[in-house]
Structures are given as structure tokens and as C-alpha cells.
Amino acid sequence: MIDWQQLPQGTPVWLTIAIAVVTIFLGLTERAAKLRGPLGAMARWWNERQIHAVKRQKSLDVHINSLVEQRTATIFQELTKDIEQLKSQVEELRGNLQSEREAWRKEREQLVVQHAKELAEIRHSEQQKHEYIVMITSTLRRIEIWAADLGIALPPPPFQSYTEWLEKRAQ
Fold it and tell me: 96-142: per-residue pLDDT in tens?
């Protein structure tokens, strides 16, 4: 440290500060480290301190990079595993969708066949009803004409019911 009391009288402050700054900067250079004495010792100490700080920083950077790479690799493996699981789930869902589509298609085909059969039965039944109505109407008309030709007033004859007519026709 500079003892401000021991400076010669009239020494300007700026000169004192300039000498102190030059001394400090010279003390921190490699050239000053080659000098003997307290200035050289201080420069060597300062240079060693800087070298150790740089080495420590490099070591810390290498360690941080190593940790980052390890963490990145771990996360990458986890993500890869998750992606593979998602892919397998998607494939499973595709298979399920395909089987459901196939089941729906089969059910639809069965319903179409069933409805076609029911429609054919209804058409057949309607055709039979129509034939029955035509047969009864023509029979009734012939009876009325026959009775009118003979001048007979007949009570209405008993008609076969639709069910009786179907049974007789089936024989």
C-alpha cells in the first residue's frame, strides 16, 4: 500500500495515481513476472492465479458439457422410448379400427340381407292379400250376376277368412 504521508511535499495527486496504476499494470504482466523482487513476485502470483482461473473455468466447462450431454442422452432415450410406445399404440388403434370396421361392415351386410328378406315377405304377403281380394270380389260379382239372372235374392254367402283362404290355397 502507498503511504500517503511519506510522499514528498507538493507531489500532485494525478502523478501518484498514475504511478500506482502503472505499477499495478506492470506487476500483472508476464514481463513483470520475470523481474526479481516484490514486483516480480506479485506479477507471478497474479499470473498463476489467472492461469488457475482459466484452467478451473475450462474444467468447469468440460464438466458442464459432460453433464449436459448425459442429460440430453437420457432425455433423448426417454423421448425415443415414448415415441416407440406411441407408435405401438397407434398401430394397435389402427388394428382395432380395422377390426371394428370389418365388424360394422359384416353387421351392415347382415342387416341388408335381413331387411331384404323382410321386404320380400311383405311383398309376398301383400301380393297374396291382393289376390284374395280380387278372388273374393270376382266370386261375389259372379254370384250376384247368377242370382240376378235367375231372379233369386240370396242372403250374403259365408266368405272364407283370409287365413282360411291362405290355408286352402297352400294345399
Answer: 999 999 999 999 999 999 999 999 999 999 999 899 889 988 988 89
**pLDDT per residue as tens digits for the range 22-76:** 666 665 667 676 767 776 777 778 778 878 888 899 988 899 999 999 999 999 9
Phi, psi angles (nearest 5°) of residue 34: -85, -10
Considering the entire predicted model, what is its pTM? 0.40
Burial (CB count within 10 angstroms: exposed 0-12, middle 13-18, buried 19+), residue 35: middle
First to last CA, the chain: 138
